[in-house]
């Protein structure tokens, strides 16, 4: 989220991207990177939206292994200085949307995906720092950039190391005709539309000489 973003739009997109299906989507938002210039206005709004989500919309996680992983990520972050804004640990498969503010590099949440409803908020001080943080990940499937300046957002999107990037929209988005896929540890190849056909196609080069030509020897 850049410093000129519409904070209402960004909060709505982040909450949907983070907590749809309890965060158990390959495209789910894991880290919410926000410019410090707007953090004090944005983060409380984000937390209120997350806390207000009814359980019927987010749903349970798949099993207790997910709960154990998410609880461990929460414990690690809190022990290293993060602040719990909403949600928290669970003892059954219904875990509330959980936001941790002040996540830093030494915390597991910086690098590990929860694949559940536990999300990191990372504050930055510039567009360049936001890019550096976003690209400091072994994963590269889906990203989102929020800004009122579409040209600025486009320039940022071009520099993100992800297969997919949505400008002013959530990371959770799919269309059957679009080339879906990531980079780095998120895999390789694409599916959807022509890109899906291309993955099963051998590209060939065939020439034909219609008249004699001079050769070097």
UniProtKB/TrEMBL annotation:
GO terms classed as biological process: putrescine catabolic process
Domain Aldehyde dehydrogenase: 2-206
SUPFAM superfamilies: ALDH-like
Signal peptide stretch: none
The entry's keywords: NAD, Oxidoreductase
InterPro entries referenced in this protein's UniProt entry, alphabetically: Ald_DH/histidinol_DH, Ald_DH_C, Aldehyde_DH_dom
Pfam families reported in the protein's UniProt record: Aldedh
Top-rank EC class of the record's enzyme: oxidoreductase
Keyword NAD attached: yes
Family indicated by similarity: Belongs to the aldehyde dehydrogenase family.
The protein's name in its UniProt record: 4-aminobutyraldehyde dehydrogenase
Protein's organism: Klebsiella pneumoniae
